[in-house]
Specification:
By secondary structure, the protein is α/β, with parallel strands linked by helices. The chain has a single domain (about 5-185, about 200-255), classed as 2-enoyl-CoA Hydratase, Chain A, domain 1 (Alpha-Beta Complex), CATH 3.90.226. About 50% of the residues lie in helices and about 15% in strands. The chain has ten helices and ten strands. Strands 1-2-3-5-7-10 form a six-stranded mixed sheet, sandwiched between helices. Strands 4-6-8-9 form a four-stranded mixed sheet. Strand 2, helix 1 (about 30-45) and strand 3 form a beta-alpha-beta unit. The protein is globular and about 55 Å long. It starts with 5 loop residues before the first strand and ends with a helix. The relative contact order is 0.15.
């Protein structure tokens, strides 16, 4: 199966899903989210026993691609989340397949939500996590406001989201955001080894264990995603967001 933004490779019970927009640091447009969901469904129905999710090049993902917005229009970000990103996050958490995220570099915005929606996260030592939303007059989305406070704690999540400071891979490991930090050149082999171990286990036991963990850790995922959608829609209509979009396109034009 071929897509524009995503590549799916299947071997030995492992579905490797890669975002393939390295020139954009794997920033995601609506199509990217749709293709990720399609790739996950293909893995579920195609005999995979586990999923390895990563990005091509030097980034896991730079979040939502603002360049896809119409600079002359008021963005309908609630619709973007409702139709594209929230269905993907829900599918990742409810999938019977365990998902291993291999964070190979920059991981920002909505891409952080996708990484934390995985079941096991492994990061390269050079990777970092970044919540830029408030800095561009938006609110965190893609499950960020559920996953980050629940995993790292309210105080750490508040500082990360309100101040927008980078979270290094080593710091993310201390906070419990990642299972393991490895040298960049070892990332995919380590992630592949984890997937291989998962693929050897009884699928029913793995699936039911994942379901139990999801029920214990994020039983309120659906209403939280809905609240993120509603508040992001409101934030996207604000004058401050309009100014941020104008500044983004002005800077882009100056570079190009």
């Amino acid at each position: 199966m071929a897509w524009d933004d995503v590549r799916l490779e299947m071997a030995d019970g492992i579905a490797r899903i890669t975002v393939t927009r390295p020139d954009k640091l794997n920033a995601m447009r609506d199509q990217t989210a749709d293709e990720l969901l399609a790739a996950l469904r293909a893995a579920e129905t195609g005999g995979a026993r586990t999923v390895l999710l990563t990005g091509e090049g030097r980034a896991f993902g730079a979040g939502y691609d603002l360049a896809t917005l119409d600079p002359a229009a008021v963005p309908d970000l609630a619709r973007v989340l409702d139709l594209h990103f929230n269905p993907l996050v829900r599918a990742m958490r409810s999938s019977p397949l365990p998902i291993v995220a291999a964070v190979n570099g920059a991981c920002a915005g909505a891409s952080v939500g996708l990484a934390l929606a995985a079941d096991i996260v492994i990061a390269a030592r050079s990777a970092f996590f970044y919540e830029p939303f408030v800095g561009i007059a938006l609110v965190p989305d893609a499950g960020n406001t559920l996953f980050l406070p629940r995993i790292a704690g309210r105080i750490r999540a508040s500082a990360a989201m309100l101040l927008g400071d980078r979270i290094t891979a080593d710091q993310a490991e201390r906070w419990g955001l990642v299972w393991k930090v490895v040298d960049p050149e070892a990332l995919l082999s380590e992630a592949g080894a984890i997937c291989a171990r998962l693929a050897e286990r009884a699928p029913s036991a793995v699936s039911m264990t994942k379901r139990l963990i999801a029920q214990a850790s994020d039983p309120d995922l659906a209403p939280m995603l809905d609240l993120e959608r509603d508040l992001q829609g409101e934030a996207g209509r604000s004058p401050a967001m309009r100014a941020a979009v104008d500044a983004f396109f002005a800077a882009r034009g100056a570079k190009g």
